[in-house]
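Q: What structure does this chain adopt?
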Amino acid sequence: MFARLPQKLKDGASILIVPVVFNIGIDHRASLARMKAFHFFSATEVENNLNYNNLAKLKAYINKNVNNLPDDIPDLMKLLEHTVYSNKPKNVDIFPLAEKICRRAYGIRVTGC
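A:
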């Protein structure tokens, strides 16, 4: 596998990792646990703020690298932004959009439950 890397990476160049997290709180027990842990916030407010902040982080990365990315990413980002700011509870549409953007931006995705 090492032999397949570009020479720059073989020579020790670094790879930038930009972690981005989206949360939709599908599990009602998890939502209740978050509400208890963050008793001064509602679970939805915590999830929304997390999604807003990480959307901004993803947008910054995309804007910085837009010239090296596929042409459909700006439209996908607009759709993700609309979806995140819709404030629809347990909005499962966020995950497939974020996944598609991640893959189109040559990233990887991890889903946790």
